Amino acid sequence: MKKILALALVVLMFAQTCVFASELPFFDRDYLTYEETVTYSAKLNKPINLNFADEYLPADVTNMIDVNGLINGLFNSTSTVTGKADISPDYKSGKIYAGGLSAVPVYVNKNLKITADANTEVWLEYDFSDLSKPVFNMIQNTPSFDKYVVYDIDTLVKNIDGAEPDAVYAVLSKLLSKEFIEQYRTAFVDLLTKYADIKKDGKGYTITIDDKGFKAILNESVTNIGNFIEDFVVSGNYATKEEFRAVYDGEIMPYVISFLEGLQTTKIIGDGNIVMKVECDNKGYIKKSDTSANICVNIFEIIEKLGGDVSGYNTAYGILDFTLNYKSEVKKLSNVKVDFPVLNEENSVNFADLFPVYPDFEPDDGEWHQHFMWGAMNHDGLPVVLNGEFYPHLRDMAVGIGFADGDITYENGVVTLMRPDWVECGKYKTASFAVGSNTVYLDGEAYTVANPALEVNDEVVISNELAKLLFRITQNLGGYVAVDFVDKSYWTDFDYQICGCDTNEIYGEIDSDLDYEIDPDFSYGA
Asked: Which residues form the signal peptide (predicted)?
């Protein structure tokens, strides 16, 4: 989830700089190469008193730490950021930099106050001129690490569960396109024109948005985003209009609508409103801007609208009233160069090395060696039993062992498994077989099974014999299957061997005959 958010934030950071540069009469300006200095600050307008420390924290903690003081201090922070961009005229490629220092005061108690200086930098390079060779690389400096953290597009895609690389590249190229940026600008300007109070004074503009206007902009933005996603999905042949609307209207929008309706009766923007002051130069480009946003929400009221129980709290203490301020000054509007840091093994680390996509099992160094693992699987649907034998669903079993969803494909009746190195249930790299065929190929070598995989209700299920060949299933497959007949789903567990060692001396003879029948009196759980 963190990787997905990091990717989304980078894309939105770029889109936001273009949008901010296009407000109202100056929306037709392209800021392809520029440098700006931005100062962010946060300030509490009234102290926070959540009134929970004495009830939930032990006295030895509250005697040392002023909890409310600590929380209050975190809001009174400032950041100074330098932003640079060098974008191609068609927006298909570019380099972006944003970085600076944040000063966060840490108030432990009246006798101990600390100011933490945190440096954060991001370098982004992208090129979607040729989608067969996409470029999307990112380098970060964060307070969490003493080295540069390096991302490449393959790492990013692998960390998005179930993502298809071609689809991810297509989405990114769409978001980082001149067409999309112009659509985004137009929609943004339209919303401001409809719901904001706009005043012009010489070369400057003041745009004010109150709580009612902010909620109207939020509601309409959701509709705009939904329309954009629908257009992208349908025009890209990822789904039909009917399929998209079935999921969007039936599964996504009810929750969104419920959330938006709840916000209508909840105050979000305080009396200070959102105020944007923009000053332009002689050519109509933004020279300076000053944006402030007064956020005033009752935390307990939000929790209650989301279904939480706040009856034990004094909701009067849940008011969070603070102001965010964003000041920008454009330093340069031409010939801006974005320099990337020089990386080596000593000063950098690849993101994949910090947080591997798959867990890394360390080998046992002692006399004892682990030969078996326990696995479990869940499936949305009822179990399949053919001729007294339980046929588990292939995809769910593989995922239960550790395969990623993208490691399994089923096209034109042929199943292909790409086994990651860390998945130790087999020694093959690629397994392939046709549904209904008695021949299974492991890295091209043919194996024969008496009971092939079958397709039941558009899903592939496998026999015990095939489960042993693909995943080294040894015992307990079908021994207990818990079925939920209300939700129409089932759960089961199993053992599988993770090495090719001879285990007879340690564990005794393993019964490898998997053609046993399910107990006819077995009720398949509760």
From this structure: 1-21
Residue 53 has pLDDT above 90, yes or no: no
Q: Confirm if 223 and 58 have CB atoms less than 8 A apart.
A: no
Write down the number of H helices and E strands in the chain. 15, 25
Torsional sign, CA 172, 177, 180, 181: positive
300: its two tokens:
């307990």
Residue 242 in 3-state DSSP? helix
Distance between CA atoms of residues 375 and 362, nearest Å: 18
Q: Tell me whether strands 93-109 and 112-127 are parallel, antiparallel or unpaired.
A: antiparallel
Give phi and psi for 17, each to the nearest 5: -65, -40
Residue with tokens 């001879």: 502
Q: How far apart, in Å, are the Cα atoms of 112 and each of 11, 66, 70, 107, 109?
A: 40, 10, 11, 7, 5
Confidence of residue 344 (pLDDT cuts 50, 70, 90): very high
User: What is the DSSP-derived secondary structure letter of residue 426?
Assistant: -
Domains of the chain and any CATH numbers:
2-351 (no CATH), 372-507 (3.30.457.10)
Q: How far apart are CA 75 and CA 105, in angstroms?
A: 8
Query: What does DSSP say about strands 148-151 and 348-350: parallel, antiparallel, or unpaired?
Result: parallel
Give CA–CA dist 31/21, Å, rounded: 7
Share of the chain above pLDDT 70, in %: 81
